[in-house]
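Notebook, bench 3.
Goal today: get a predicted structure for Si:dkey-57a22.13 from Oncorhynchus tshawytscha so we can plan the truncation constructs. The sequence was checked against the plasmid map this morning, with no discrepancies at the termini. Length recorded as 251 residues. Pasting the sequence as submitted so the record is complete.
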Amino acid sequence: MPARTFSTDESGLLTLLYAQDQDFWQRSQATKSLFIKITNKVGSAYLSIEVYIVVPGPGEPDHHSCRGRAPGRFTRMSKITFYEDSNFQGRSYECDADCADMHPHFSRCNSIKVDSGCWVLYERPNYTGYQYVLTRGEYPEYQHWMGYNDSIRSCRTFSYTSGGPYRMRIYERPNFQGQTMEFAEDCESVQERFRSRDVYSCNVLEGYWTLYEHPNYRGRQYFMRPGEYRKFSDWGATCATTGSFRRITEF
């Protein structure tokens, strides 16, 4: 059982860090720590609690501290609530993890509240069909997440990791061939920047991104996390047409 260390910083925020000893952290590359921060305290009542998992960042020492800049990156736990009717009415279901089949929990989805995390929703079970990328916020009708209908049958969450740049390379041919261009910012018109609307392969180097079928962030959506996509079907598309893309920065 890990030892518990309590400390209170100068702002009066209580932190709880699970740890063992410094030698343990230096030996282990896979261990994660739980970090709880009280963000709103009135008297003896705590009104707001944020929970994080501390994960060592690239090239950073594998130990953690409650004070100053934490050596690791902070991964915030995800939470989403689905509602059968518009404006957050009707039967609801709260979720904090991936779910391959949501039909047992609700029959339709017309509004959503995302409290934290990045969520990818799918029209069909087993992470298939139309994709919808949602970040923190309220969506009172399915049109607000650019939904084609009120069907949400599966979902995945990708927790926020703070810090770090964004980089993505797109290619005009499969298997990273042909013309290429690297991006670090949003692009509202691939045609204007890349001189082509066809993206056949993609290498996401850093950060989470959303590709859109049409310019100005419209049409079908495709969630992109770091990795190699040798053909457009690797990110779930049925054709190479790509109108725009942008970074996922709000969680």
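The chain has three domains: 3-76, 79-160, 167-247. The first helix runs from residue 22 to 27.
Flagging this for group meeting.
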